Amino acid sequence: MSKRTLCITEKLYDYMVDVSLRDSDLLRQLREETAKDEMAQMQISPEQGQFMTLLIHLIKARKTIEIGVYTGYSALCTAMALPDDGKLIACDISKKWTTIAKRYWEKAGVDHKIDLRLAPAVDTLGELLASGQESTFDFIFIDADKTEYNHYYEMGLKLLRTGGLIAVDNVLWDGAVADKSVHDEDTEAIRTFNKKVHADPRVEISLVPIADGLTLARKI
User: Fold this and answer.
1) Phi, psi of 182 (to 5 degrees)
2) For a tag site, which of 58, 89, 113, 203 has the least CB within 10 Å?
3) 14-50: per-residue pLDDT in tens?
4) What is the pTM of this model?
């Protein structure tokens, strides 16, 4: 028994993945292709993808948003968990990376569920609000530029239904948030965001120490 979260060594991580990860050839292929990219660290871990899939099933999500698509791994996990008439609004600004994503979405047969918006996410979120979609989304995943997390969160809360879930990635930032000697813009932005969500009475929260830290915020 332990009173605190275990330190995950390489050996323990390998064991955890071995006894818990239910993978697919297509997800593996996307991870392998993404690993060749110089920005491959932006991809979520496979166990996080599986965890998000479980969350989407648990809340019976049908209408979702993703902010920060990269090569499409997390969007693929989300779309595969949605019902056939479910919808994912995928926000990104990179045609290069999302071209890879679209190829895998098509291979998986889930491309009809994904509405890719190549534009700044704040613009897309603003358009969704302007079109009367406030309080209609079930699940929102935020994994983009850290200095904009607060904007994404605030706009996301407006779009989210009561009982809906926002998942925010990289909130532990490879440990930098706990290092008082680190003061770069991204680290400070995440620290500020974490403190805000901790004190936000509009949501119930849990910071899950999976991958680089995932904050779950359920709208009350």
Assistant:
1) -100, 125
2) 58
3) 999 999 999 999 999 999 999 999 999 999 999 999 9
4) 0.97
